[in-house]
Amino acid sequence: MQHPRADRGVSWARRDDYRSTAFTTPRTESSMHGEAVIAASPERVYAHLVDVSRWPDWLPEVRRAHAPNGIRLGAAFEIEMYGIRLEAVVPEYEPNTRFGWIGSSPNMSIYQAWDLVPFPPGTQVIARKVERELTTVMMGNSRVEELYYAHQDALLRLKKVAEAGGPSA
Q1: What are phi and psi of 140, to 5 degrees?
Q2: Using CB atoms within 10 A of its CB, is residue 52 exposed (0-12), middle (13-18) or buried (19+)?
Q3: What is the rounded (10 degree) CA torsion for 3, 9, 13, 17?
Q4: What's the gap between Cα 108 and its chain centre?
Q5: pLDDT in tens, 105-148
């Protein structure tokens, strides 16, 4: 499915929702996958992804992100997104190739990873995200499409900021 505001080079692969019965209280999970072709080098794109303190500049759902010891494999950082404070860790860190983080709070958890593949004249970005409980925490009376498109909006914003260069480049 194509995002209604998608620019050329951004596609949507899927979004899956399910309720797990493996818990005493059923939990909601959303799995998302999106792809973008960005006219910037993998190094430039990766620099934006790992500059977590600047995420609020291009990710509207992120209010604050702080990595006191920088971002590297195993690094811990704090992030506030959707109004919820998460403790996060970086289990995947392969410079210019792959970056992934896991964040959690008592009521929800998020896993997000980006794979970067050289794709002349730039980079193909493959983004995956799994959110547990976020759907029920955030949705309230909102339409499902709002979260459906939020992941792809992040790719569109990454595309815009990386192609513009900017301070992380």
Answers
A1: 50, -120
A2: buried
A3: -40
A4: 15
A5: 887 788 999 999 999 889 999 998 887 765 544 544 444 556 55
